[in-house]
Each structure stands twice: as C-alpha cells, then as structure tokens.
Amino acid sequence: MGRYAIKIEYNGEGFVGWQKQKAHLGVQQIIEDALLRLEPTASGVQGAGRTDAGVHATGQVAHFDMVQDWAPFRLKEALNFHLKPNPVSIIAIAAVDDEFHARFDAQERHYVFRLIARREPVVFEKGLVWHVRGPLDVDAMQEAANHLLGRHDFTTFRSTMCQAPNPVKTLDRLDITHSPVTNGVELRFDVRARSFLHNQVRSFVGSLKRVGAGSWTPDDMRAALEAKDRVACGLVSPPHGLYLANVVYPTDIFADEL
Question: How many Å apart are CA 164 and CA 153, to the nearest integer?
Fold first, then answer.
C-alpha cells in the first residue's frame, strides 16, 4: 500500500464545496469516485482545506492510499481521465511517506480573492471574480488590511456557523495588488495564514470593499476587529471570487513534478 499526495485545480461552480455530502455533490466525492474506478478498495481522500460552495482552487492538496504500487505520472493520467467531464484537474502528484497528512501537516494556506471594479458587467470572467461597480481606493484598503495582520480574536470576521473551538488566529499576510482591465481595475487579495475560520477571508474582503468605497475608514476596520462581534462585520463577499491558491508543507512534496 502506498500514499499519494495530489495538487488539484477545480472550478467551484456547481459544487457544494470540497467536502462530500450525502445529498449534494462535493469535489472530494468526484475524486473518490475516480479512484474507485481504478481500485475498488481505494481509501477516501483527505483534503488540506474545506472550501465552501462556489469557491475555486488552483492549489488544493489532498492525500489518499492505494493498494497497487502506481507510478505517479500514470496515476495522474488515469485520474484525470476518469474525472472528465467535471471541472476538476489533478495538476501534480507525488508518492509520500505513510505518515503524511494533507490537512495536519500544512504549515500555511494561501488564498487569493479576485475583484474587478468597473461600471460595465464582466463577461469572460463571470463566475470567476466579484464584480463591483465603481472605483475603489486601494491605498485605503491596504491601510485597513494592515490592522488585521498578526494574532487576533477574529470573532467579527467568522461565520456564526463556524465550528472552530477558538476564534484566535494569526494572519501572516493580506496584500492587495491591482492591475488595469478594460474600463476598470482588477484587485487581487493575497491572504496567508496557517489556518482560517469559516468565511474569514470573504468577511475580510467584504469589509475592505466598504473601505475602498468610502463607507468605512481604515480605523473602522480596526474598530470592527476590536469589537469581537459578528454584527460589526461588513458584508460577506460572494464565493466565486475566492481561490485556494496553495498549501505549504515543511518540504516541497511536488518538487520533482514541477
């Protein structure tokens, strides 16, 4: 029996998220079904993070065990064949130690949120970005984001359905970059931490949008954080702008693949 780690891309539209559910389709279930086509006794798939319904991934990581000794490249090709026509792709695979765990061994999770600010509707990026009409003050948004860095009680920025036992997390990075698009600008929020609370990133972005639009000042963001009250949070951004971009481990398990 061997253990394998995979890096996964998926378009979250149409899925209830990463985690499989009895009555609805999750990405985890799609991959497990593909594995069962290869080995009827294949184990379940353990992911590094539970993305919500509509959230995408360009670097989700998962692991599973196989009875047969597979060459990684051949296993990747076989999985991608059986994943068709679902919008899910295995982009890297590696044989790993039997003790490796995609979730518990992760040292950092990296999310990217994409927002396009322009008056006209988006066409080619529809379902892949949050479309906001009107300009946003990126400098004010970054000033507000800086208040969130470090170790804090993030009760304000977590869902009331969050099951984490402790709202205290350490936010390592929240950088906002921008680049021109036709008639507007695309903002990218680069958010990194060891772990996140439910809806934490989307709550950050929704509140920062208020700062950019002038409804809040950067100090209002600090006050919202210090309130430790969900009522103090701004709106929660939609899921389709959010991507799980990368998961960092003590060693680069896919180094030979890339």
Answer: 12
